[in-house]
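ok so i was messing around last nite and threw this chain in just to see what happens. nothing serious, just curious
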Amino acid sequence: MSTKVNYTKLLQQVKKFVLSYYKAHSDPKFTYHNIDHTNDVVSAAKKIADHYQLNDADYFAVLVAAWFHDIAYSAGAENHEEKGAVIAADFLKGFDLDNELVQHITDCILSTKLPQNPKDILQSIVCDADLFHLGTNDFQRKTKLLRKEFNTLYGTDISKEDWRKKTMQLMEEHDYHTDYCRLLLNETKQNNLHELERKLKAKDDKPDEEESIPFASTEDDMRIFKNDKNKQELSKGVETMFRLTSSNHQRLSNMADSKAHIMISVNAIIISLLLSLLLRNMTAHHNQVIPAIMLLTVNLVTIVFSILATRPNISQGTFTQKDIDDRNVNLLFFGNFYKMGFDDYRHGMITLINDNEFLYGSLIKDVYAQGIVLGRKYRLLRASYNVFMFGLVISVIAFVISSLIR
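result:
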């Protein structure tokens, strides 16, 4: 892919073009597929792409696809993805972009066509960004806008009951393609689905205005409802942050253990081969004894560092009532309670659950402790790889020299 392009500057031109396009093709009947939806998809694509730390070219491809994915909807819903891909490709022709990058962008746009079937991580990000709202608290509002648009475009009057059935079918058949969105959105998506099921069973046919803000009849009621909703969203955001952080830490820990296992296995094989060959042919190759000992030392030190990186550290496994009263114990980590009786642990957990400050403090301690363990693992693992890399080079040089001066 091209390295000469200023992707940030070009993204600004893409944004300017898309905004101008939507302005020129503005139509009030598009209550859902409009610039607001595109902005939401771009915002979601940024969040997901930032999580995966894409390189500049891939990040550019994802955001351009997000900007263009519904640009042709005003020309007709049918095959609008193909039309949007053509518009994007035509716009990008005037810039110094590799054909491969342009192809990635058009493929991402085409992948948003239902039913979605992305082929790689870039397409998965754009697809999840397009249907990001299914797992958000804004779902109810957006599905109402989509129903209104559908009725206007096709001259129909689809009932709320039929619309809910179609929406439920879409949500049941849909799966987020990235682990980030599955972890972040699946719970709220299921809640949204259950709410649709509840309304369908109750044959809830109230006007949209009543549904959108339940129990709110005065300005004070509205303010209270909005504050409660903001608190709920904040709480969910914090919980999602802890889940994602713990998940990422666990993934990094697994990667470290896997790398350490590779080092141990490789060096164990080298040691077994060296010992068998050295002991059998020591007299015939006495000039290579020193290089062989050097390599053996490198292998042993590498294995030691790798073992230290994966060796578990277990704490005392007990806590006292004073620890609970002072909020000094993390009951979410097994090392702090594995020697305690169940009744003591249950009492501590009930205290933890009923005290938000204690609960979130324990979660913070847990994340911090995971980070400390990860830091230690990766330091030792880096030392293991460095010893192996430099030691192997020096040992090979020693073998070559010993062979030349024999």
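not much to say yet. Residues 356 and 362 are 10 Å apart (CA to CA).
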